């Protein structure tokens, strides 16, 4: 069985490919602040999109989307606000999305959830 790190890395690599096919520009991966991390940061049509990526190879611990709690979204929003501040951007140019990958399906089931939370 793959480690959590390996699963996460595989999922993030697949997510980058997914969004690049849509024409999104990857700006940063694994942006970290003290108590939060943003998996992927993209720019698309003058908008900054902060993406949480979740994957599951089994449903033993639930579906991938179930792992994205309101508390997790608030932490992502906090990190996004800091990223925007550091880059002198405004939050009206930004949104939080999620991409889930369910590897129990063949081929993998990819679901893109747009604008899942409000920036602080």
Descriptive tags:
alpha+beta, 5-stranded mixed β-sheet, 120 residues, single chain
Overview of this structure, please?
By secondary structure, the chain is an alpha+beta fold. The chain has a single domain (4-117), classed as Trna Endonuclease, Chain: A, domain 1. The protein contains two helices and five strands. The protein has helices spanning 4-21, 70-86; strands at 25-33, 36-44, 47-56, 94-102, 109-117. Strands 1-2-3-4-5 form a five-stranded mixed sheet. A hairpin with a 2-residue loop joins strand 2 and strand 3. The mean pLDDT is 92.
CATH architecture descriptor text? 3-Layer(aba) Sandwich
Helix proportion of residues, in percent? 25-40%
CATH names the topology as Trna Endonuclease, Chain: A, domain 1
Overall 3D form? globular
Please provide the count of β strands: 5
CATH class: Alpha Beta
Order of helices and strands: HEEEHEE
Short description:
The chain has a single domain, classed as 3-Layer(aba) Sandwich (Trna Endonuclease, Chain: A, domain 1). The chain has 120 residues and is of the alpha+beta class.
